[in-house]
Write a structure and sequence with these properties.
Layout: E1 3-9, E2 15-20, E3 25-30, E4 34-39, E5 44-49, E6 58-61, E7 67-71, E8 76-81, E9 84-90, E10 94-101, E11 107-113, E12 119-125, E13 128-133, E14 150-154, E15 160-164, E16 169-173, E17 179-183, E18 197-202, E19 208-212, E20 217-221, E21 227-231, E22 239-244, E23 249-254, E24 259-264
Antiparallel strand pairs: 1-24, 2-3, 3-4, 4-5, 6-7, 7-8, 8-9, 10-11, 11-12, 12-13, 14-15, 15-16, 16-17, 18-19, 19-20, 20-21, 22-23, 23-24
């Protein structure tokens, strides 16, 4: 049975994203221009303000432990290094959405076109674009074309997993960008509201966890998209961004409450 370990009160209004810095520290962000670092005892360790003064769309930590954030107002991704904020990537005609640093150290970013009609995933090495994932083998878009949230993560088998909120689907492609499967909710044990995934993360056993905000629960899937179980007992309210640390502790953002809940879900 999943067990609530601790609740970290972040003070964020509309808490969206959480990312693990190490075993004891997390970064958090919401609909304001401050990005906050907490330890597991709920102590605020550091606050960083975005360069533009607007809220970040998402945050991530690179392989050197530096904070990255995406900024819709400048259409850029920034790195915060030794207290200095530097522009890492600036886009033309596209706006960066959600971010994920993968096992190779590369950055995956979901993004949408400025006319809100297309979405894609781009892989970067440093500032250099290395791969674009946008269409299936039939030339159809893999992701819904809009500016809605598309959190992204890499699984241990190098699959790229996107929670496409508007499509009501988790969309998983292999490392070459070929569609493997889509998950649109569990038909056997349905919840009250339609499945609309927000946050997404993976654990040491290649399971995929995705937050079902409207149904106040987390879906756990295996690496082939088979539903395993829900986490629906920890009094979760509007779960949003997710991350898992190296010990398979799950951190869940509660959007309206501004809390991060740390949950031990492995038995």
């Amino acid at each position: 049975m999943p067990e609530l370990v601790t609740t970290i009160q972040t003070g964020h209004e509309h808490l969206r994203s959480v990312t693990c810095l190490n075993e004891d520290k997390i970064w958090t962000s919401g609909w304001t221009n401050d990005i906050k670092c907490f330890n597991s005892k709920s102590s605020l360790l550091q606050t960083i303000h975005t360069k533009s003064g607007y809220c970040p769309y998402d945050i991530a930590v690179d392989s050197d432990g530096y904070l990255l954030y995406s900024d819709w107002s400048t259409r850029s991704v920034y790195k915060v290094k030794n207290g200095q904020t530097e522009e890492l990537i600036r886009l033309q005609g596209w706006t960066p959405n959600q971010l994920c640093v993968i096992s190779t150290g590369d950055l995956l970013a979901t993004m949408f076109s400025v006319d809100f009609t297309q979405s894609k995933v781009v892989r970067y090495s440093g500032s250099s674009e290395k791969q674009t994932i946008q269409f299936d083998d039939d030339g159809k878009p893999l992701y819904s074309g809009n500016h809605n949230t598309k959190y992204i993560t890499e699984n241990r088998n190098h699959d790229v997993c996107v929670a496409d909120y508007k499509a009501g689907a988790v969309v998983v492609v292999n490392q070459d960008g070929k569609l493997r499967w889509r998950y649109t909710g569990n038909p056997q044990v349905t919840k009250n509201e339609p499945f609309k995934p927000f946050g997404i993360t993976t654990d040491s056993q290649s399971r995929i966890l995705t937050s079902d905000c409207g149904n106040h629960c987390i879906h756990i899937l295996d690496q082939n998209g088979q539903f395993l179980r829900y986490i629906d007992n920890c009094d979760l309210k509007y779960p949003y961004g997710l991350c898992v640390d190296n010990n398979d502790n799950l951190f869940v953002c509660e959007y309206n409450k501004g809390n991060v809940k740390k949950i031990k879900y492995l038995t």
